[in-house]
Amino acid sequence: MAEGPLVLCPIDFSAASSAALLCAVDIVQRFDARLMLLTVDDPMLADAARVRMGEGWHRVNSERELRAFLGDALGPAAVSRHPPQVEVAEGKPALEILRVARESACDLMVMSTQGRSGSSKLVFGSTAERVLRETTVPVLVVPAKGAGPASVDAASRSGAPVLVPVDFSSATPRQTDIARRIASALNLPILLLHVIEPLHVPVPAVIDLSGLLATRLSQAQAELNACGQDTPAPIRWETMIEAGNAAEEIARVAREQPAALVVMGLHGPPAPGPRMGSVTYGVLQRAPVLTLALPPSSASMAELLLRLRKGGKPS
Length: 315
Description:
Elements: E1 6-10, H1 15-30, E2 34-41, H2 43-53, H3 57-74, E3 85-90, H4 93-104, E4 108-112, H5 126-134, E5 139-142, H6 152-158, E6 162-165, H7 172-186, E7 190-196, H8 209-228, E8 237-243, H9 246-256, E9 261-265, H10 279-286, E10 291-294, H11 302-309
Parallel strand pairs: 1-2, 1-4, 2-3, 4-5, 6-7, 6-9, 7-8, 9-10
Antiparallel strand pairs: 5-10
């Protein structure tokens, strides 16, 4: 019998990673998946521990701390019928998270973001940002404190929509397909959103700007309707068009609804290399809402989506 989907949850023992852990546990319970907990030790601290305590001590200690962290988060509740796997790595956190995700062929990562002081109060920590720029695996981003539900179970009970911001690119059909399956599994409606951004090129005086805007609105509505027409009953779906900066408008809608979940794409660059400047990053900085970030392609999502299509398993 094939093993269930694998969910990887990186842990840094912060309150934010505790929120991510609870969400990951909810997912593995609901969909009978497997859970892998990962912590990344600082090499200098690990070396110091080896000198003072002997080879292997730091790894054993980190594994013990991971299990204790899991126990403190859950109390007596069981994770799933699959005992959680515990992994300890050494090195730079983002690189090790990406490596373990790749080598374990996980189906989904669930991780938190860390805020820092400054002009923006919701700025990604370098680890989460690096992972999102380079991941080939879908990442469910869990804010420590957010405007919407903090877990899949809470999202399912909220009745709020799954927000799907679309840009009508080649990635949109896959994005909407995944969103439909999630909405079906959680019995939630879908809100398809498109943001018409301002024109950044000079417009000749002979062009009627009001007529141009009307044309753009009409075209956007037609494409939104096309995105939603394959949505099977009984999933309810609606459309919304806003104008302005894409990241700001998507974040505002996500907060004001509030959305149960946002399903967004992580678009790749035209040339090989890390993804840069995606609207998704801007949204996640501004809207502390549970968000599923989808890389351009990720075949590993297939198993989890199959379970979503079947409605999952109750916890």
